[in-house]
């Protein structure tokens, strides 16, 4: 397990740090995302500590949780960031990141996004194809700059995770095919407005073993040797993110264990002089958050019993999208016999479920905590069914900070225009 759960029962009531979750539901309503500042910082420190004394840096993957207050907690702790859009660049900068600690990933960067990122002075563009190199070269020429680039190579290893979140296989849209990488570096080296600075890979997400990382690393380091034989210097090796967390009974390696294994392998293979970048997302924020929801109705059925709650797939898409498991616990567990429920939302889709076959003793009005919702929770939320997006709060000891106000219907409708009469 990468991190102790920061959400504990005290006198029969689930708390976040020193605050009862029920009090947050009263104050801010539900559905509500609740994060623990301590948990965010503990996870970050685990990475930072394992990197101490090494030329290694941590670039928080913004897409896992892009709330400004969350990003700011990491920026204050000294993090760099990994972004995948111009929007995320704006967020990271607003949260206090310095541009020269931002790496720009993503398979479909627009010329406009490249321009803004070049002007801001990002550390590196993680480029995924020759057409993207061409475009970046042209944009940099326009601005009279040289764009720092790294190629995202696809090492074709199986991260042994869900097919939708594995990204390092040949069949994925991501990265430059391994066999073409050396030639692509040669092409990049010929482009006058690019400066090659590194190499990167990101093989997937929710990875619960170390071996896929080391397999990918071996392939990438072999490639680095070939590229340098061609006369191109690789300053940094970016090993991506992807470390898994415990949702149910998974046993991912500890953060420090993974970082050490990676850094040791790089050193053993004679690459210890290079800077190493990590791009963690889920493992920093996943278990630092819960989604708090209230039971609206209990609906018994002949085949299944349903607990219909006020959170839905628009708030937390992972179950509908990946059949992901999230533990669900009563905020104030009741004595008495449990019933097996499917915990579902009010959205008009059969895919709108949050948990299946959960044994819970419930009454309407009870509060539930959907665990491990800090990563790819709010950031994947939508307005489907014209549902305003949830509020987000960060708890720090006894202090509660509203990190995002609940969206109003007025805000939700503000950009729409009726046809003229
Ligand atoms: C999503 C992503 C990450 C973070 O992945 P996690 O599984 O959340 O750690 C890192 N790097 C890149 C390029 C990504 O796309």
UniProtKB/TrEMBL annotation:
Pathway the protein takes part in: Amino-acid biosynthesis; L-lysine biosynthesis via DAP pathway; L-lysine from DL-2,6-diaminopimelate: step 1/1
Residues where substrate binds: 282, 318, 322, 349, 376
Molecular function (Gene Ontology), one example: pyridoxal phosphate binding
Needed cofactors: pyridoxal 5'-phosphate
The keyword Amino-acid biosynthesis belongs to this UniProt entry's keyword annotation: yes
Chain positions recorded as pyridoxal 5'-phosphate binding sites: 242, 279-282, 376
GO biological process, any: lysine biosynthetic process via diaminopimelate
EC number assigned by the record: 4.1.1.20
Residue(s) carrying N6-(pyridoxal phosphate)lysine: 63
Enzyme category, top tier: lyase
Record domain Orn/DAP/Arg decarboxylase 2 C-terminal: where: 33-374
Alphabetized UniProt keyword annotations: Amino-acid biosynthesis, Decarboxylase, Lyase, Lysine biosynthesis, Pyridoxal phosphate
InterPro entries named in the record: Ala_racemase/Decarboxylase_C, DAP_deCOOHase_LysA, De-COase2_C, De-COase2_CS, De-COase2_N, Orn/DAP/Arg_de-COase, PLP-binding_barrel
Domain of life: Bacteria
Entry keyword Amino-acid biosynthesis: yes
NCBIfam families in the record: lysA
Subunit field text: Homodimer.
Family: Belongs to the Orn/Lys/Arg decarboxylase class-II family. LysA subfamily.
Function: Specifically catalyzes the decarboxylation of meso-diaminopimelate (meso-DAP) to L-lysine.
Name of the protein in question: Diaminopimelate decarboxylase
UniProt source species: Pararobbsia silviterrae
Gene: lysA
């Amino acid at each position: 397990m990468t991190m102790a759960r920061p959400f504990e029962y005290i006198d029969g009531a689930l708390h976040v740090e020193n605050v009862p979750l029920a009090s947050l539901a009263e104050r801010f309503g539900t559905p509500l995302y609740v994060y623990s500042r301590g948990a965010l910082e503990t996870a970050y420190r685990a990475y930072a500590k394992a990197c101490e004394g090494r030329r290694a840096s941590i670039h928080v993957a913004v897409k896992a949780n892009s709330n400004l207050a969350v990003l700011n907690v990491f920026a204050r702790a000294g993090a760099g960031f990994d972004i995948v859009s111009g929007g995320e660049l704006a967020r990271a900068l607003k949260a206090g990141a310095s541009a020269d600690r931002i790496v720009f990933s993503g398979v479909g960067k627009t010329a406009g996004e490249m321009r803004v990122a070049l002007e801001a002075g990002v550390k590196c563009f993680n480029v995924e194809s020759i057409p993207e190199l061409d475009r970046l070269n042209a944009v940099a020429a326009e601005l009279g700059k040289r764009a720092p680039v790294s190629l995202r190579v696809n090492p074709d290893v199986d991260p042994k995770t869900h097919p939708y979140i594995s990204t390092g296989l040949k069949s994925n849209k991501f990265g430059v095919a391994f066999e073409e990488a050396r030639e692509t570096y040669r092409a990049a080296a010929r482009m006058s407005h690019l400066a090659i600075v590194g190499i990167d890979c990101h093989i997937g997400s929710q990875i619960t073993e170390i071996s896929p990382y080391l397999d990918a690393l071996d392939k990438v380091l072999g490639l680095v040797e070939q590229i340098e034989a061609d006369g191109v210097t690789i300053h940094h090796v970016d090993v991506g993110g992807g470390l898994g967390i415990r949702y149910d009974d998974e046993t991912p390696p500890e953060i420090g264990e993974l970082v050490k294994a990676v850094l040791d392998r790089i050193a053993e293979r004679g690459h210890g002089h290079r800077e190493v970048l990590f791009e963690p997302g889920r493992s920093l924020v996943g278990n630092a958050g819960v989604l708090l929801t209230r039971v609206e109705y209990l609906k018994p059925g002949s085949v299944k019993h349903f607990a219909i709650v006020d959170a839905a797939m628009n708030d937390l898409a992972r179950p509908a999208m990946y059949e992901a498991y999230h533990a669900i616990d009563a905020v104030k567990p009741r004595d008495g016999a449990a019933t097996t429920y499917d915990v579902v939302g009010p959205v008009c889709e059969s895919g709108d479920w949050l948990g299946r076959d959960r044994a819970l003793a419930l009454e309407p009005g009870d509060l539930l905590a959907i665990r491990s919702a800090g990563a790819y929770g709010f950031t994947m939320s939508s307005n489907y069914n014209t549902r305003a997006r949830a509020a987000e709060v960060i708890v720090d000891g006894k202090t509660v900070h509203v990190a995002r106000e609940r969206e109003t219907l007025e805000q939700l409708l503000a950009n729409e225009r009726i046809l003229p009469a």
